[in-house]
C-alpha cells in the first residue's frame, strides 16, 4: 500500500507540474501576441503630426537640392547645403536655404533663374533621414519626395527576417509621431521632415517562432493526457 501511495503521489505531482507548465506556456503566448516590442528608439510619448512634411518644412545642413534645367547641363546638378545653411548655385551664387518652407524656397529659386533661362526649372529636395531598427544596414540616407516608404527602407538594404513592416514608426526629436505609414506611402504625402527617423520594429518573439511555443504546448498537453489516462 505504501508503494502504491508513493506512485500515485508521484503521478499526481507530475500531473500538477504538467498543468502548471501548460498554463504558463499559454499565458506567455497570450502576452506575446498581445504585446508589441518597444524599441529604445521609440519612446512612449506620442505627439500628433498635424502638418505635412516636405512642402511645409525647412531644409537642414547636410540636405541636398537637386537642380535640373532643360538643355542646361552646366546649370544642373546636386548642390549640398553647408553647415551655414547656404547653397552655391550656378549664376545665383551662394544663397541661404534653411529659413523657409521648401515650397516657398522652390518658388524663390525658380523666380531667380527666370532672369537667366527660359526653360523649365525643376528643384527637388534630397533630405537626410535615419533608417533604423530591423533593417540590414541602419544609418543615415537621403530620400526624395517621390520615394515610397519601401524605397527608403531599400536604401538601408531592406528589412531583416524579423521585421514588422506594417508598423514603421516615424520619430522626430525623440518622440514618435501619430502617423501610420504603410510600405506604399509616398514620402511627399507623409509628415516626414529632414532629420526624422524611420524605425522598423521587430515582430514579437512568439510571432517569429510559433513552432517552438506550439511544440511546447503540445508536449505539455500530451503529458497531462497521459497522466490522466494512467489513473
Terminal Cα span: 16 Å
Shape estimate? elongated
Q: Spell out the helices and strands N to C.
A: HEEEEEHEEHEEEHH
Number of strand elements: 10
Overall mean pLDDT stands at: 80
- Which runs of at least 5 residues are low in confidence (pLDDT < 50)? 33-50
Beta-strand content estimate: 15-25%
What percent of residues adopt helix (DSSP H or I)? 25-40%
Assign the CATH topology of the largest domain: wza like fold
Plain-language structure description:
The chain is of the alpha+beta class. The protein has two domains: 2-35 and 206-230; 46-203, wza like domain (wza like fold, 2-Layer Sandwich). Helices cover 33% and strands 22% of the residues. It contains five helices and ten strands. It has helices at 2-34, 102-113, 149-155, 205-208, 210-230, and strands spanning 46-48, 64-69, 77-80, 86-89, 93-96, 121-133, 139-143, 169-172, 175-178, 197-200. The strands form two sheets. Strands 1, 2, 3, 6, 7, 8, 9 and 10 form an eight-stranded mixed sheet that branches. A two-stranded antiparallel sheet has the order 4-5. The two termini are 16 Å apart. The relative contact order is 0.19. The model is unreliable at 33-50 (pLDDT under 50).
Give the SSE map.
Blueprint: H1 2-34, E1 46-48, E2 64-69, E3 77-80, E4 86-89, E5 93-96, H2 102-113, E6 121-133, E7 139-143, H3 149-155, E8 169-172, E9 175-178, E10 197-200, H4 205-208, H5 210-230
Helix pairs in contact: 1-5
Gist?
With 231 residues, this protein is of the alpha+beta class. The protein folds into two domains: 2-35 and 206-230; 46-203, wza like domain (wza like fold, 2-Layer Sandwich). 33% of the residues lie in helices and 22% in strands.
Amino acid at each position: 500500500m505504501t508503494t502504491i501511495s508513493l506512485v500515485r503521489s508521484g503521478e499526481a505531482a507530475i500531473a500538477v507540474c504538467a498543468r502548471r507548465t501548460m498554463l504558463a506556456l499559454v499565458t506567455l503566448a497570450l502576452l506575446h501576441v498581445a504585446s508589441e516590442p518597444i524599441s529604445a528608439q521609440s519612446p512612449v510619448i506620442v505627439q500628433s503630426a498635424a502638418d505635412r512634411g516636405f512642402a511645409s518644412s525647412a531644409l537642414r545642413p547636410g540636405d541636398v537640392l537637386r537642380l535640373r534645367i532643360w538643355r542646361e547641363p552646366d546649370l544642373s546638378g546636386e548642390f549640398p547645403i553647408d553647415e551655414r545653411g547656404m547653397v552655391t548655385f550656378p549664376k545665383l551664387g551662394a544663397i541661404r536655404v534653411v529659413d523657409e518652407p521648401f515650397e516657398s524656397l522652390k518658388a524663390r529659386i525658380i523666380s531667380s533663374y527666370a532672369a537667366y533661362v527660359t526653360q523649365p526649372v525643376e528643384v527637388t529636395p534630397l533630405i537626410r533621414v535615419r533608417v533604423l531598427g530591423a533593417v540590414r544596414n541602419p544609418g543615415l540616407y537621403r530620400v526624395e519626395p517621390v520615394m515610397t516608404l519601401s524605397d527608403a527602407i531599400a536604401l538601408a538594404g531592406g528589412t531583416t527576417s524579423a521585421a514588422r513592416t506594417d508598423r514603421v514608426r516615424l520619430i522626430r526629436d525623440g518622440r514618435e509621431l501619430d502617423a501610420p505609414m504603410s510600405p506604399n506611402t509616398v514620402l511627399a504625402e507623409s509628415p516626414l521632415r529632414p532629420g526624422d527617423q524611420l524605425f522598423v520594429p521587430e515582430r514579437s518573439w512568439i510571432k517569429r517562432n510559433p513552432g517552438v511555443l506550439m511544440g511546447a504546448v503540445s508536449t505539455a498537453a500530451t503529458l497531462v493526457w497521459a497522466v490522466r489516462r494512467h489513473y
